[in-house]
Task: inverse folding
Protein backbone atom coordinates (compact mmCIF):
# COMPACT_ATOMS: atom_id res chain seq x y z
CA UNK A 1 0.00 0.00 0.00
CA UNK A 2 2.85 2.41 0.83
CA UNK A 3 4.43 1.72 -2.54
CA UNK A 4 1.17 2.49 -4.31
CA UNK A 5 0.70 5.71 -2.37
CA UNK A 6 4.26 6.74 -3.18
CA UNK A 7 3.67 6.10 -6.86
CA UNK A 8 0.42 8.06 -6.77
CA UNK A 9 2.16 11.28 -5.72
CA UNK A 10 1.79 14.01 -8.32
CA UNK A 11 5.41 13.78 -9.47
CA UNK A 12 5.81 13.84 -13.22
CA UNK A 13 9.53 13.95 -13.84
CA UNK A 14 13.01 15.25 -12.92
CA UNK A 15 15.04 18.04 -14.38
CA UNK A 16 18.79 17.86 -13.60
CA UNK A 17 19.26 17.46 -9.81
CA UNK A 18 15.81 18.81 -8.86
CA UNK A 19 12.23 17.81 -9.47
CA UNK A 20 9.07 19.72 -10.29
CA UNK A 21 5.55 19.20 -9.08
CA UNK A 22 2.40 18.66 -11.03
CA UNK A 23 0.45 21.79 -11.96
CA UNK A 24 -2.44 21.19 -9.52
CA UNK A 25 -0.05 20.96 -6.53
CA UNK A 26 1.81 24.06 -7.70
CA UNK A 27 -1.43 25.97 -7.96
CA UNK A 28 -2.34 25.08 -4.38
CA UNK A 29 1.02 26.34 -3.16
CA UNK A 30 0.60 29.59 -5.08
CA UNK A 31 -2.86 30.08 -3.57
CA UNK A 32 -1.36 29.87 -0.06
CA UNK A 33 1.33 32.51 -0.77
CA UNK A 34 0.10 36.14 -0.44
CA UNK A 35 0.34 38.45 -3.37
CA UNK A 36 3.62 40.27 -3.75
CA UNK A 37 5.46 37.23 -2.43
CA UNK A 38 6.70 34.24 -4.27
CA UNK A 39 9.58 31.86 -4.48
CA UNK A 40 11.98 34.66 -3.47
CA UNK A 41 10.25 34.93 -0.07
CA UNK A 42 10.49 31.18 0.45
CA UNK A 43 14.18 31.27 -0.47
CA UNK A 44 14.81 34.11 2.01
CA UNK A 45 13.05 32.25 4.81
CA UNK A 46 15.04 29.14 4.00
CA UNK A 47 18.29 31.09 4.17
CA UNK A 48 17.34 32.59 7.55
CA UNK A 49 16.51 29.14 8.93
CA UNK A 50 19.88 27.87 7.72
CA UNK A 51 21.70 30.76 9.38
CA UNK A 52 19.89 30.19 12.67
CA UNK A 53 20.70 26.50 12.52
CA UNK A 54 24.37 27.30 11.89
CA UNK A 55 24.30 29.77 14.79
CA UNK A 56 22.81 27.12 17.08
CA UNK A 57 25.52 24.68 16.10
CA UNK A 58 28.16 27.31 16.92
CA UNK A 59 26.91 27.61 20.54
CA UNK A 60 27.19 23.90 21.26
CA UNK A 61 29.98 22.96 23.73
CA UNK A 62 32.20 19.93 23.61
CA UNK A 63 31.66 17.18 26.20
CA UNK A 64 34.93 18.06 27.95
CA UNK A 65 33.89 21.73 28.23
CA UNK A 66 30.53 20.68 29.67
CA UNK A 67 32.32 18.49 32.23
CA UNK A 68 34.55 21.38 33.33
CA UNK A 69 31.52 23.66 33.50
CA UNK A 70 29.70 21.19 35.74
CA UNK A 71 32.76 20.90 38.00
CA UNK A 72 33.14 24.67 38.34
CA UNK A 73 31.08 24.98 41.60
CA UNK A 74 33.09 22.21 43.27
CA UNK A 75 36.36 23.77 42.10
CA UNK A 76 35.26 27.15 43.47
CA UNK A 77 34.32 25.67 46.86
CA UNK A 78 37.55 23.68 47.18
CA UNK A 79 39.59 26.66 46.04
CA UNK A 80 38.01 28.98 48.61
CA UNK A 81 37.92 26.62 51.60
CA UNK A 82 41.01 24.48 50.88
CA UNK A 83 43.54 26.01 48.51
CA UNK A 84 43.16 29.60 49.70
CA UNK A 85 43.84 28.79 53.41
CA UNK A 86 46.90 26.75 52.44
CA UNK A 87 48.17 29.64 50.31
CA UNK A 88 47.61 32.05 53.20
CA UNK A 89 49.54 29.77 55.58
CA UNK A 90 52.41 29.59 53.08
CA UNK A 91 52.46 33.39 52.79
CA UNK A 92 52.38 33.96 56.58
CA UNK A 93 55.25 31.51 57.05
CA UNK A 94 57.60 34.10 55.49
CA UNK A 95 56.47 36.98 57.72
CA UNK A 96 58.36 38.49 60.61
CA UNK A 97 56.94 38.69 64.12
CA UNK A 98 57.63 39.72 67.68
CA UNK A 99 55.65 39.94 70.92
CA UNK A 100 53.72 42.96 69.56
CA UNK A 101 52.43 41.63 66.26
CA UNK A 102 53.05 40.33 62.75
CA UNK A 103 54.95 42.17 60.02
CA UNK A 104 54.45 41.24 56.34
CA UNK A 105 57.84 40.44 54.85
CA UNK A 106 59.67 37.74 52.92
CA UNK A 107 62.08 36.06 55.33
CA UNK A 108 63.34 32.49 55.45
CA UNK A 109 64.17 32.82 59.14
CA UNK A 110 61.18 30.73 60.23
CA UNK A 111 62.23 27.80 58.03
CA UNK A 112 65.87 27.97 59.05
CA UNK A 113 64.90 28.06 62.72
CA UNK A 114 62.54 25.12 62.21
CA UNK A 115 64.79 22.88 60.14
CA UNK A 116 68.01 23.90 61.86
CA UNK A 117 66.92 22.94 65.36
CA UNK A 118 67.63 19.48 66.75
CA UNK A 119 64.40 19.76 68.76
CA UNK A 120 62.42 19.82 65.52
CA UNK A 121 64.12 16.71 64.18
CA UNK A 122 63.61 14.89 67.49
CA UNK A 123 59.95 15.90 67.44
CA UNK A 124 59.54 14.57 63.89
CA UNK A 125 61.20 11.29 64.86
CA UNK A 126 58.81 10.94 67.81
CA UNK A 127 55.82 11.73 65.60
CA UNK A 128 56.90 9.22 62.95
CA UNK A 129 57.38 6.64 65.72
CA UNK A 130 53.79 7.10 66.87
CA UNK A 131 52.63 6.95 63.24
CA UNK A 132 54.44 3.69 62.47
CA UNK A 133 53.26 1.92 65.64
CA UNK A 134 49.65 3.08 65.35
CA UNK A 135 49.54 2.27 61.64
CA UNK A 136 50.84 -1.28 62.12
CA UNK A 137 48.42 -2.02 64.96
CA UNK A 138 45.39 -0.52 63.22
CA UNK A 139 46.26 -2.41 60.03
CA UNK A 140 46.39 -5.78 61.79
CA UNK A 141 43.30 -5.17 63.92
CA UNK A 142 41.35 -3.53 61.11
CA UNK A 143 42.12 -6.28 58.60
CA UNK A 144 41.01 -9.10 60.89
CA UNK A 145 37.84 -7.28 61.97
CA UNK A 146 36.97 -6.58 58.33
CA UNK A 147 37.84 -10.17 57.36
CA UNK A 148 35.55 -11.54 60.05
CA UNK A 149 32.67 -9.28 59.03
CA UNK A 150 33.10 -10.00 55.32
CA UNK A 151 33.69 -13.75 55.23
CA UNK A 152 32.48 -15.27 58.52
CA UNK A 153 29.16 -13.44 58.80
CA UNK A 154 26.86 -14.81 56.12
CA UNK A 155 23.79 -12.63 56.56
CA UNK A 156 24.01 -9.09 55.25
CA UNK A 157 21.75 -7.76 58.00
CA UNK A 158 24.04 -9.21 60.68
CA UNK A 159 27.06 -7.67 58.95
CA UNK A 160 25.44 -4.25 58.98
CA UNK A 161 24.39 -4.57 62.64
CA UNK A 162 27.91 -5.54 63.75
CA UNK A 163 29.41 -2.78 61.62
CA UNK A 164 27.09 -0.24 63.23
CA UNK A 165 28.08 -1.55 66.66
CA UNK A 166 31.70 -0.72 65.75
CA UNK A 167 30.66 2.84 64.84
CA UNK A 168 28.65 3.52 68.04
CA UNK A 169 31.67 4.86 70.01
CA UNK A 170 32.37 7.30 67.19
CA UNK A 171 29.07 9.04 67.84
CA UNK A 172 30.75 10.77 70.78
CA UNK A 173 33.61 13.25 70.82
CA UNK A 174 37.21 12.16 70.40
CA UNK A 175 38.12 13.99 73.60
CA UNK A 176 35.50 12.07 75.62
CA UNK A 177 36.62 8.71 74.23
CA UNK A 178 40.24 9.60 74.90
CA UNK A 179 39.65 10.79 78.48
CA UNK A 180 37.63 7.65 79.21
CA UNK A 181 40.93 5.72 79.32
CA UNK A 182 42.19 7.69 82.33
CA UNK A 183 40.03 5.91 84.98
CA UNK A 184 40.92 2.60 83.34
CA UNK A 185 44.70 3.05 83.14
CA UNK A 186 45.29 5.30 86.15
CA UNK A 187 47.33 4.39 89.21
CA UNK A 188 44.16 3.52 91.09
CA UNK A 189 42.28 2.63 87.93
CA UNK A 190 40.45 -0.50 86.90
CA UNK A 191 43.45 -2.35 85.45
CA UNK A 192 45.83 -1.74 88.35
CA UNK A 193 43.18 -2.46 90.98
CA UNK A 194 42.23 -5.76 89.31
CA UNK A 195 45.83 -6.92 88.92
CA UNK A 196 46.64 -6.08 92.55
CA UNK A 197 43.55 -7.87 93.86
CA UNK A 198 44.44 -10.95 91.79
CA UNK A 199 47.96 -10.89 93.24
CA UNK A 200 49.64 -10.58 89.86
CA UNK A 201 51.48 -7.36 90.72
CA UNK A 202 52.48 -6.03 94.16
CA UNK A 203 52.08 -2.34 93.30
CA UNK A 204 50.43 -0.26 90.56
CA UNK A 205 52.06 -0.09 87.12
CA UNK A 206 53.13 3.49 86.50
CA UNK A 207 53.60 3.40 82.72
CA UNK A 208 50.00 2.50 81.89
CA UNK A 209 49.00 6.18 81.95
CA UNK A 210 50.83 9.37 81.00
CA UNK A 211 53.28 7.54 78.78
CA UNK A 212 53.88 6.64 75.14
CA UNK A 213 51.96 3.43 75.75
CA UNK A 214 48.85 5.40 76.69
CA UNK A 215 49.25 7.63 73.62
CA UNK A 216 49.47 4.64 71.27
CA UNK A 217 46.56 2.85 72.95
CA UNK A 218 44.31 5.89 72.69
CA UNK A 219 45.24 6.49 69.05
CA UNK A 220 44.59 2.87 68.11
CA UNK A 221 41.20 3.11 69.79
CA UNK A 222 40.40 6.36 67.97
CA UNK A 223 41.57 5.46 64.46
CA UNK A 224 41.01 1.73 63.99
CA UNK A 225 37.62 2.25 62.35
CA UNK A 226 39.27 4.37 59.65
CA UNK A 227 41.17 1.22 58.69
CA UNK A 228 38.26 -1.19 59.08
CA UNK A 229 35.85 0.63 56.76
CA UNK A 230 37.89 0.74 53.50
CA UNK A 231 39.23 -2.80 53.99
CA UNK A 232 35.72 -4.13 54.62
CA UNK A 233 34.48 -2.36 51.49
CA UNK A 234 37.28 -3.94 49.46
CA UNK A 235 36.75 -7.44 50.83
CA UNK A 236 33.04 -7.33 50.05
CA UNK A 237 33.86 -6.77 46.37
CA UNK A 238 35.99 -9.92 46.06
CA UNK A 239 34.41 -12.62 43.92
CA UNK A 240 33.84 -15.69 46.11
CA UNK A 241 34.41 -18.00 43.15
CA UNK A 242 38.12 -17.15 43.38
CA UNK A 243 38.28 -18.92 46.74
CA UNK A 244 36.65 -22.03 45.29
CA UNK A 245 39.07 -22.01 42.37
CA UNK A 246 42.05 -21.69 44.72
CA UNK A 247 40.82 -24.56 46.89
CA UNK A 248 40.19 -26.72 43.81
CA UNK A 249 43.80 -26.05 42.82
CA UNK A 250 44.94 -27.45 46.18
CA UNK A 251 45.61 -24.22 48.08
CA UNK A 252 45.32 -24.23 51.85
CA UNK A 253 43.47 -21.63 53.87
CA UNK A 254 46.61 -19.60 54.57
CA UNK A 255 47.64 -19.80 50.91
CA UNK A 256 44.24 -18.46 49.86
CA UNK A 257 44.61 -15.66 52.39
CA UNK A 258 48.14 -14.75 51.32
CA UNK A 259 47.80 -15.17 47.55
CA UNK A 260 44.18 -14.13 46.96
CA UNK A 261 42.67 -12.10 49.79
CA UNK A 262 45.58 -9.85 50.77
CA UNK A 263 46.56 -8.83 47.19
CA UNK A 264 42.95 -7.95 46.39
CA UNK A 265 42.60 -6.05 49.70
CA UNK A 266 45.62 -3.80 49.07
CA UNK A 267 43.58 -0.84 47.72
CA UNK A 268 41.49 -0.78 50.91
CA UNK A 269 44.62 -1.07 53.03
CA UNK A 270 46.17 1.85 51.18
CA UNK A 271 43.12 4.06 51.70
CA UNK A 272 43.00 3.16 55.39
CA UNK A 273 46.73 3.85 55.67
CA UNK A 274 46.27 7.33 54.21
CA UNK A 275 43.51 8.06 56.72
CA UNK A 276 45.47 6.80 59.73
CA UNK A 277 48.79 8.40 58.76
CA UNK A 278 47.31 11.85 58.16
CA UNK A 279 45.25 11.73 61.36
CA UNK A 280 48.14 10.61 63.58
CA UNK A 281 50.56 13.14 62.10
CA UNK A 282 48.08 15.97 62.80
CA UNK A 283 46.98 14.82 66.28
CA UNK A 284 48.07 16.97 69.21
CA UNK A 285 45.31 16.56 71.82
CA UNK A 286 45.89 12.82 72.33
CA UNK A 287 49.62 13.32 72.74
CA UNK A 288 49.14 16.18 75.19
CA UNK A 289 46.51 14.51 77.39
CA UNK A 290 47.57 10.84 77.37
CA UNK A 291 51.29 11.55 77.79
CA UNK A 292 50.79 14.10 80.53
CA UNK A 293 53.02 16.53 78.66
CA UNK A 294 55.95 14.09 78.62
CA UNK A 295 55.87 13.40 74.86
CA UNK A 296 55.95 15.79 71.94
CA UNK A 297 54.66 15.83 68.39
CA UNK A 298 54.83 18.25 65.49
CA UNK A 299 51.18 19.23 65.81
CA UNK A 300 51.62 19.82 69.54
CA UNK A 301 54.60 22.05 68.81
CA UNK A 302 52.50 24.13 66.41
CA UNK A 303 49.74 24.38 69.02
CA UNK A 304 52.21 25.69 71.59
CA UNK A 305 53.62 28.20 69.09
CA UNK A 306 50.14 29.52 68.32
CA UNK A 307 49.37 29.85 72.00
CA UNK A 308 52.47 32.09 72.23
CA UNK A 309 51.27 34.12 69.20
CA UNK A 310 54.18 32.87 67.09
CA UNK A 311 52.00 32.42 64.02
CA UNK A 312 54.72 32.65 61.31
CA UNK A 313 56.79 29.96 63.05
CA UNK A 314 53.72 27.76 63.39
CA UNK A 315 52.90 28.37 59.71
CA UNK A 316 56.41 27.30 58.70
CA UNK A 317 56.02 24.13 60.77
CA UNK A 318 52.66 23.51 59.11
CA UNK A 319 54.13 23.84 55.61
CA UNK A 320 56.95 21.41 56.44
CA UNK A 321 54.48 18.95 58.01
CA UNK A 322 52.22 19.21 54.95
CA UNK A 323 55.17 18.45 52.67
CA UNK A 324 56.14 15.40 54.75
CA UNK A 325 52.57 14.05 54.77
CA UNK A 326 52.21 14.59 51.01
CA UNK A 327 55.44 12.70 50.41
CA UNK A 328 54.17 9.81 52.54
CA UNK A 329 50.85 9.75 50.67
CA UNK A 330 52.68 9.87 47.33
CA UNK A 331 54.81 6.90 48.40
CA UNK A 332 51.67 4.95 49.33
CA UNK A 333 50.02 5.74 45.99
CA UNK A 334 53.23 4.75 44.24
CA UNK A 335 53.09 1.29 45.77
CA UNK A 336 49.33 0.62 45.56
CA UNK A 337 46.88 1.76 42.88
CA UNK A 338 43.73 2.89 44.72
CA UNK A 339 41.83 3.91 41.58
CA UNK A 340 40.02 0.57 41.74
CA UNK A 341 38.23 1.77 44.85
CA UNK A 342 37.33 5.25 43.55
Result:
Amino acid sequence: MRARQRNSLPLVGRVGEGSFLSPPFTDRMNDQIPKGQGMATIAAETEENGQSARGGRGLRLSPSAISYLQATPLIAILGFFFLLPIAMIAVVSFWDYDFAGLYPDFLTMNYTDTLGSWVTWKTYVNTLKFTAIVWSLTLVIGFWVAYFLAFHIRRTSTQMILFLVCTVPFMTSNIIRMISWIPVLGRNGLVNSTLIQMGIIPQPIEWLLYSDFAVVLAMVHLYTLFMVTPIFNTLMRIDRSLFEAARDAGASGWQVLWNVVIPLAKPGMAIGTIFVVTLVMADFSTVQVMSGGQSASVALTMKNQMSLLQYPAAAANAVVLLAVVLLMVAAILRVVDIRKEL
